[in-house]
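$ run holo --ligand "iron/sulfur cluster" --emit tokens
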Amino acid sequence: MISLQPQPRAASPPPAERDYISYSAISMYQSCPLKYFFRYVAGLPERTVAAALVFGSAIHRSVEHHFTELLAGNEPPTLEALTGEYDRHWQETDVSVVKFGKDDDRESLGPLAQRMLAAFQTSSLAKVEGHILGVEEQLRGPVIAGTPDLLGRVDLLVETTNELIVTDLKTARSRWSAEQAADSGAQLLLYSELARPLAPRKKLRLQFAVITKSREPCVELHDVPVDRRQIDRTKRIVEKIWRAIESSIYYPAPSPMQCPTCPFRTPCRAWAG
Ligand code: SF4
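-- output --
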């Protein structure tokens, strides 16, 4: 469903074996080129994983279960079934490598997850109007000239009489503003190019579904306009990033937001340039 990596990762395959690019890889290069290098080029194993990633993936797994049941023609799962999926995700995670925040542990996150899933169940997102075409649908295609195929996983694909709706699920500390949705739109704009051939005559709709991790969680939908100029701009940005990667341009981009949970802190400090 998502591109998060909840488990500590074994060494990645060497770049020569990759014949695709993903939005998460491109996004990682944008946030820190050296982190991209450690993961995707050097293929270093990752011995720690941020609790927020595990938590987000567990919520995604629960939501995916909901939509998969609907896709199969079954009744919506109960809250107990959704929290069961959430718990299973944690059970399958090696908690000893998870980096929690100073006020978090696995137990303290459980009640929050329950409130978020309850909010999801009663939201308009959970009551799909239309025909579900795919859940966690993997799409791949040559979207940007001069770069490998783009590989994307679409959380939810729904077809209505007039529209093809591409939904990406996010968990966030607080509500997103319209600017935040627009600023995050690159992923959906790229996915629109992969999804368009599925229903070429239908209007394409792109939306983020944001579940907040607040005391009283809420679920909000944010549309991202399908703007041709923005799509082309995004493709040109990815093309330039790909050229930088091909030219082996790597450097650290330290930030207090991402360095504390980065699994490559030790090799980063040792990196001599
Ligand atoms: S520790 Fe910070 S600067 Fe170094 S690789 Fe990780 S994210 Fe980049």
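-- notes --
The chain has nine helices and eight strands.
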